[in-house]
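Hi Q.,

Before the meeting this afternoon, I wanted you to have the adenine prediction in hand. No need to reply - just skim if you have a minute. The sequence and ligand are here:
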Amino acid sequence: MRIDVVTLFPDFIRESAALGVVGRAQERGLLAVHGWNPRGYATDNYRRVDQRPFGGGPGMLMLAEPLGACLAAARAADPAPARVIYLSPQGERLTQAKVRQLAAEPRLILLCGRYEGLDERFIDREVDEELSIGDYVLSGGELAAAVLVDAVGRLQEGALNHADSATQDSFEDGLLDCPHYTRSEATGTEGVPPVLLSGDHAAIARWRRQQSLGRTWLRRPDLLARARLDKADRALLAE
Ligand code: ADE
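Predicted structure with the ligand bound:
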């Protein structure tokens, strides 16, 4: 998969995408992340990339021409058709289901806004989808783009070391993850639920499912209302 990120801070995207699981996915050739700076496509002497909005008011918008030229260059860098995503607080809220869908695309182009955002006509013309990472305002789309690159990158086939670790993630079944415990020199097995030490795999699976359900019930009842639960789940919740 290829992801091109159009941003005034391409180094941030390159550096964050070089770390951890996503960095390893790039090393393994499963993912390629490229940064593109609209400033390099500005035509005036000052390399301006912002402009005042019609109607006045505070704040500036990103200038459409350098952004358009930069996006065109990013599109042309690879023959595969790209889905163009604009990160903004006005977008549809990103979910794990959306991440899965995007992870199956051959190519994404992410547009990061700065200032007050982009000209609406540019969005109408060029953008396939507008996505938000949450109901709060960041000073630019870069952190949101880095979130999306990470979430999509780690789902590329072969990116994670244990093949099943992605399917057991929080949200994959619409529920929060169960708690985890690790061996430690200092604490040994102290405070570890005894079932996890029992070696009884069926009992452990049942306990984990019940913890997932219980945590989701306590912390995110909105998720529980939408999750598809079977009879066994309902029985575990009722216990
Ligand atoms: N840009 C600024 N705030 C954002 C948010 N919450 N999600 C995505 N992009 C953004």
